[in-house]
Amino acid sequence: MTDEGTTVTTGAARGRVRDVWGHRTPFGRGDRWPDRADQLLAEGIAEEDVDRWVRSACALCSNGCGCDIAVKDGRMVGIRGRIDDAINHGRLGPKGLYASWQGMEHHDRLTTPLVRRDGELVPASWDEAMAMIVERSRALLDEVGPLSHGFYTSGQLFLEEYYALAVIGKAGIGTPHMDGNTRLCTATAASSLKETFGADGQPGCYEDIDECDALFLFGHNMAATQTVLWSRVLDRLDGPEPPVLVVVDPRETPVAKRAVVHLAVNPGTNLALMLALVHEVLANGWADDAYVTAHTLGLDALRREAEQWSPERAAEVCGVAASDIREAARIFGTSERVLSTVLQGFYQSSQATAASCQVNNLHLLRGMIGRPGAGILQMNGQPTAQNNRETGADGDLPGFRNWENPDHVAELARLWGVDPLVIPHWAPPTHAMQLFRYVEQGSIRFLWISATNPAVSLPQLSRIRDILAKPETFVVVQDLFLTETAELADVVLPAAGWGEKTGTFTNATRTVHLSEQAVEPPGEARADLDIFLDYARRMDFRRDDGRPLLEWAGPDDAYRAWQECSRGRPCDYTGISYDDLRRESGIQWPRREGETTSIRRLYADADFPTYPEYCETYGHDLATGADVGEQAFSAQRPDGRAFLKAAAYSGPHEPPDDGYPLRFTTGRSVYHFHTRTKTARSPELDAAAPSVWVELAEADAAARGLGDGDMVEVRSRRGRLVAPVRVTGIRPGTVFAPFHYGYWDAPESAEQRRPTAANELTITEWDPVSKQPVFKTAAVRVTRVEVER
Ligand SMILES: Nc1nc2c(c(=O)[nH]1)N[C@H]1C(S)=C(S)[C@@H](COP(=O)(O)OP(=O)(O)OC[C@H]3O[C@@H](n4cnc5c(=O)[nH]c(N)nc54)[C@H](O)[C@@H]3O)O[C@H]1N2
Ligand SMILES: Nc1nc2c(c(=O)[nH]1)N[C@H]1C(S)=C(S)[C@@H](COP(=O)(O)OP(=O)(O)OC[C@H]3O[C@@H](n4cnc5c(=O)[nH]c(N)nc54)[C@H](O)[C@@H]3O)O[C@H]1N2
Ligand code: SF4
Ligand SMILES: [Mo]
């Protein structure tokens, strides 16, 4: 024990690959979640050997657990959770404990730039590499103009880096072709918040877990993907007055196993279920009529859509029992404090925004928002996805400004000292799927990819590989490692990563952390911010008054410029300085200049950011994605009221048929992060999940004479995957594969090469509103294959 009530689990942390959530610290409703100090040091390193502990937050998911990095002899040698941190109260999960620092400290990091000469990537100096980039960039700007340039970034850089990139793209070059892998990740979180409330910004907070009576997880396997948050839920479930858990997921996940109601829906049918839940809440008189009348718009249209969805009809479409839908609705309709979380089972599935907006609708109908325990968490995934959305590196305008509002564009033009006409705002920003389409068609000829690995993470990989390999496109890849994507680049830039640079990032609950540089980057690797600033300098981007566009010396300058950009907007950072972040472990925005505390929950006053002059969007038709436009929006006089929006159910894009009778869905393992660049370099995590597998229901396995470990080919219209079977509690008719594995197993010989990437099979489709690609539904068939294992 250290402080009272705090246990250090240094020794036990070694076993945390198996003991994913650590020991229980149960607590009752409304109590403070107890502290638990988790720590892991490299083999042979004792606490007294550590030279320094450096303040940071874990960058392996959007939970944003506060931590300190252990440094010895200039190297990262371990990590500990910060017990004073607002988010994790000392805890860390397996990825944080192992992969955060082990993943960085690796012998195969990129240490010099590489350039392609005679078809081969060969080492080059920074000067050579940057000169090649700038030469190509200038030539294309002169010959073709800004639309020749595309930037595809991440949810894993720091706020300062995104803001630099956003200013370069919007005010330096003037291209609308900017997006991040956040499009694959949390575009629907942003869209559903914007459509309902008028602007992005998470209404709820994690303290709502401590206070709720019912917890609904919509397509969110929190136990595997936000392990520390799930520890908090487990501690409530094991304490007095536990909340009732309802889970919507086709698989029998660890969260589903703890649920009172588990709705194992057919992939792609979320909207039908949600409309039935809305139907039940309205039909049983569970709505808070006074709240709805005072604070919302659109009830009649919502009622018309929901009326058609009796529990029986939804039960048939979703493949669940009508009585379970009724029970879930009753829990929602009669609990005092419901907390909902939504993630990829909704965001990457059919009709993503429409389905996710129904979660907002349920809360609005019940007047359950902004109160302790009554909250919405339209979740994030990546550690810094939120900052990409805030700063506009994803194509939106910075500070949740509205591209259709000329005053917002003028504000930015003043801030950046450029003509408003330079800033792209004549059409919606180009989303990632469209961006890659433009590369395919040849209109984008300069593509700069930072901190993402699209050759594994985008849908329909054979197509993506062809696009990236097009000889006429100049591709820059900026990464820590020579990834599958970097192998296809013309120039590869070695980046410094977490622990090797300073910057801020914001988790799913608007909580900002400062991550300080702990060690020097390897070789010649440079911070992404320095790389972007170097490019801006070499391109000689200037303000109208002749001064350089970006005069920042480092992250502090970039952060201060961002604070100014955020002033007066929903994500106001003007009261959160680096020094504040060194004092307080985790600070929520908005905090305005002069304020010293933050409000935990948005919208307690039910005053939503839907004022036409203030809102981030005028909204869209949820079925088609068509723009509502300023006139129609203002004519509704929303002025602080939220929107109850819906769309008619249309079902998955590629329903099963005779040739491809099974529904394919994809997702994550607790042990790996995405394309495994860090987790595969942690020996413990890699050993826990070294290669791909596919999950089948017992009935589907039996029908094909298959058992655990048998090798199968899973084939869709676009590609194939070969993997051993795991028979699990997944709903019959559904096949699941994790998407972490690259396109070939590390082969001993050419004959053993086999496709292992889930995205060989996925479909090139996206949600009409958020443009988030559909990774969770496709039609496949499964057959036994004979392969060496
Ligand atoms: N261990 C680990 N943690 C991570 C990550 C990681 O790679 N590894 N990545 C981080 C990131 S960036 C993200 S975005 C999050 C993602 O976190 P989650 O969204 O929790 O993860 P997924 O496994 O992608 O999807 C969640 C669940 O959706 C279910 N599902 C599939 N199709 C459907 C459907 O049509 N309807 C419903 N209701 N459910 C469906 C799947 O069975 C799966 O269990 O995790 C973050 N945390
Ligand atoms: N089938 C299927 N596909 C999916 C999903 C799914 O559920 N199913 N989920 C989608 C989602 S939600 C996401 S978020 C994406 C993730 O997809 P990706 O973004 O492609 O996955 P990562 O492996 O996290 O790639 C991040 C890269 O950034 C590098 N990197 C890390 N830190 C830094 C840094 O500081 N600087 C630089 N320059 N590089 C850095 C890493 O080495 C890594 O190569 O995948 C999506 N694809
Ligand atoms: S829950 Fe997320 S942020 Fe926290 S330690 Fe695990 S990976 Fe890191
Ligand atoms: Mo994500």
Write the topology of this structure.
Blueprint: H1 10-13, E1 39-41, E2 52-57, E3 66-72, E4 75-81, H2 94-102, E5 114-117, E6 120-123, H3 126-143, E7 149-153, H4 159-173, E8 178-180, H5 182-185, H6 187-197, H7 207-211, E9 214-218, H8 222-225, H9 227-237, E10 244-248, H10 254-257, E11 261-263, H11 270-283, H12 289-295, E12 296-297, H13 299-307, H14 311-318, H15 322-334, E13 338-342, H16 344-347, H17 352-365, E14 375-378, H18 385-391, H19 406-416, H20 432-441, E15 446-450, H21 454-457, H22 461-469, E16 474-479, E17 491-494, E18 503-506, E19 511-515, H23 528-539, H24 555-566, H25 578-583, E20 587-588, H26 630-635, E21 642-643, E22 662-667, H27 683-688, E23 694-697, H28 698-703, E24 711-715, E25 720-728, E26 734-738, E27 778-784
Description:
- The protein is built from 28 helices and 27 strands.
- The protein is of the alpha/beta class.
- The protein folds into four domains: 6-105, N-terminal domain of TfIIb, CATH 2.20.25.90; 114-185 and 384-496 and 520-550, Rossmann fold, CATH 3.40.50.740; 187-379, Dimethylsulfoxide Reductase, domain 2; 662-784, Barwin-like endoglucanases, CATH 2.40.40.20.
- A hairpin with an 8-residue loop joins strand 2 (52-57) and strand 3.
- The longest helix has 18 residues, at 126-143.
- The radius of gyration is 25 Å and the shape is globular.
- The site of one ligand MGD has 34 residues, from helix 8, helix 16 and strand 22.
- This is Nitrate reductase.
- Its cofactor is Mo-bis(molybdopterin guanine dinucleotide); [4Fe-4S] cluster.
- Belongs to the prokaryotic molybdopterin-containing oxidoreductase family. NasA/NapA/NarB subfamily.
